[in-house]
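Ex. 9. Protein: NADH dehydrogenase [ubiquinone] 1 alpha subcomplex subunit 6.
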Amino acid sequence: MTLVTTLKRALIHFQPERKKPRMAHMLKNFRVPPNSASLEEARSRTFEFLRTCCRSIPHVMDIYNLHDVVSPSQLRSAAASELRKNASVTNPKVIDMLLFKGMEELMNIVNQSKQRHHIVGKYVVGNQGLVQDLAAKDQDKSNFLKNFYSSNYS
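Predicted structure tokens for NADH dehydrogenase [ubiquinone] 1 alpha subcomplex subunit 6:
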């Protein structure tokens, strides 16, 4: 046996360790069909989109290093609440358009077109997180300061 023959036989039996498929690769084939024939079809596509979002959450948490900020269950509930915002829509064409926009948002997140603070600001903190609670700050102030602020800044 020659050295070349031995190497060929060794390479035939050598199988490199397979890597897990990346979510971005799996999302390339996921498309929102242009038109839903009925409301039930649009509803099933919406559930399939939510499942795709939930499957991509671990990958998104790894990409953006969100483990210290949020848990996967909190991101899943944020994705579900984004879908529930439009629960009253009954037109299948409008639902398809919203699914397309949601798919575009998911692709931007998975392909790292957004930065970490975009994800944290929109899905972790949310709109209510930026509003300051002024009532809690006023509890420790004296009556003099409360009257002063109310008279000068009201």
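Check your answer against this statement. Residues 38-127 form one domain.
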